[in-house]
Amino acid sequence: MKLIGEKVVLRPIVMVDAPRFVKWFNDPAVHRFLTRRKINLKEERVWIRSLPKKKDQVHFAIDTRDGVHIGSVGLSIIKRDNCAIFGIVIGDKRYWNHGCGTEAMKLVVDYGFRRLKLHRIELDVYGYNARGIHVYRRLGFKFEGKKRERIRWKGKYYDEIQMGILRNEWQP
């Protein structure tokens, strides 16, 4: 399945994407915003092979409209509660601050509410990720709490911010 926007195309993740994910997740400028860090090619290939079996997860590669793979986005679904946990990475730093992540997020959140009929989508974001927090707020996510000094980065502690949005709050 593909989701198509004006700037990005969301498509299934395939094995040829693995080396790019490894490069991105091993780049401190990228992985400082992620829970997943320092991976190797074998681990990434195992993860990609497992994706079709994961009925409670929806993951997409993010490509530009001209076919450049720049990141990934997904939902981990909690069926019992009819909600999901959102995650995104724009690993190709050349595409930071170009609106590609915002559009990918809109496409996946809309997919979650309209196609999957989710009630709620939530996320955690590190307190130092001002750019991410700004985008999440702009898209309608609400501050729900924080885990104080939950993340340690380069010897300092930072809060982890919890945000969420309900289906009736979503304005695509």
Reported by name, the CATH topology is Aminopeptidase
In percent, how much strand structure appears in the residues?
35-45%
Helix and strand pattern? EEHHHEEEHEHEE
Which stretches are low in confidence, meaning pLDDT under 50 for 5 or more residues running? none
Quickly give the structural class.
alpha+beta
CATH C-level category? Alpha Beta
How helix-rich are the residues, as a percent range?
25-40%
Span of the ends, CA to CA = 20 Å
The description of the largest β-sheet is: 8 strands, mixed
Gyration radius from CA atoms, angstroms: 16 Å
Order of strands, widest sheet: 1-2-3-4-5-6-8-7
Shape: globular
- Mean pLDDT across all residues, rounded? 93
Secondary-structure arrangement, i.e. CATH architecture: 3-Layer(aba) Sandwich
CATH superfamily: Gcn5-related N-acetyltransferase (GNAT)
Can you count the helices? 5
Domains (count)? 1
E-strand count: 8
